[in-house]
Specification:
single chain, about 325 residues, alpha/beta, 11-stranded mixed sheet, two-stranded antiparallel sheet, 7 helices
């Protein structure tokens, strides 16, 4: 018996191995409970699906496509879309934004290469060239720039969508509400956060959130600091059992308007979102935390993305041999 088998035999929960969550830089925020005196785990009720709902998601793709000396020139594509579900359960696209562009530190390029780029590319996003000689940090800056452009598209599309929401219609976003006050303060918008880079809980509350059983939600809390710009109410929701996987498996953090009505609706909203886990959002990498309608929007955008710009995945670094 190995040491870890001995731990499991003694009562520890089995796991299949950890994984690195694809998160933004970790930040510490604060939480103030607005439901219960201590953070609790609540079973969710039988789900009731709203008669009308829309879902917003976005994608980003980028790749280094050329070098001008050590200067890395990047081809990028970002897009966002809103899909509305009709009474028959069919999702229809109601709004879409996209941008394909180059990123380059124009001031660090040779005159000839810069001229060629400006002549051949209609959309160029200039970036600073201070990190050109540090390729790893330069690419981190590129990734951050692309992510911000994607977030801008999603925010713009969400602000357009809320103007068209019906009186009983809900909008679910992939990500945080707190980036835009107009979005964060709307009474019928929810944010579904798959990444957990911002920490708001600690001690026993954090342990209860991370070991939340499937089909349960935590108490509602007010979040401040971290990535938030506007105060919102939030709670954790477990879509699938984490036992035998890892602590973040199937775990979502939900954001909604900071209002007492959110606390009253948290149970029913959690039941609805729990139901949206089916059909399975495969083959997405984080299908266990991706609501199926948001996966549908993502798949739609991926199908319309440029064919010459695949998703960034690890590729072989073996030398290319002439055929």
């Amino acid at each position: 018996m190995t040491w870890w088998q001995a731990l499991i035999h003694a009562g520890a929960v089995a796991a299949t191995g950890g994984r690195r969550d694809d998160v933004e830089q970790t930040e510490q925020g604060t939480a103030e409970l607005v439901e219960d005196a201590e953070l609790q785990a609540h079973p969710i009720p039988e789900p009731r699906i709203p008669s009308a709902a829309s879902f917003l998601n976005g994608i980003e793709r980028w790749s280094v496509v050329a070098y001008d000396g050590v200067v890395q020139i990047v081809n990028a594509h970002v897009a966002a879309a809103v899909c509305r579900r009709d009474r028959q359960g069919v999702l229809h696209t109601t709004g879409e934004l996209h941008r394909s562009f180059a990123l380059a530190p124009l001031k660090r390029m040779s005159a000839a290469m810069r001229q060629k780029l400006e002549q051949s590319c209609a959309d160029i996003e200039p970036v600073e060239g201070d990190l050109v000689e540090q390729p790893a940090r330069y690419l981190e800056m590129i990734e951050s720039t692309v992510r911000k452009i994607r977030a801008h598209h999603e925010r713009e599309l969400a602000e357009e969508a809320i103007r068209d929401l019906g009186e009983e219609e809900w909008l679910v976003l992939d990500g945080r509400l707190s980036r835009s006050p107009a979005i964060a303060k709307h009474p019928r918008i929810l944010g579904a956060i798959k990444s957990h880079g911002a920490q708001f809980l600690e001690g026993r509350g954090l342990e209860r959130a991370l070991t939340l059983p499937a089909g349960h939600r935590t108490s509602v809390f007010l979040v401040r600091g971290g990535h938030t710009r506007t105060e919102v109410y939030s709670w954790y929701l477990r879509l699938w059992p984490w036992e035998g996987n890892d602590l973040l498996y199937g775990l979502l953090r939900i954001e909604a308007r900071a209002d007492p009505e959110t606390v009253r609706q948290a149970a029913a909203l959690s039941g609805w979102l729990w139901a949206e886990r089916a059909p399975l959002a495969t083959p997405a990498t984080r299908w266990d935390r991706l609501l199926y309608p948001l996966h549908h929007v993502e798949a739609y955008l991926n199908a319309r993305a440029p064919r010459d710009l695949p998703s960034r995945r690890a590729s072989s670094r073996l030398p290319r041999l002439a055929s």
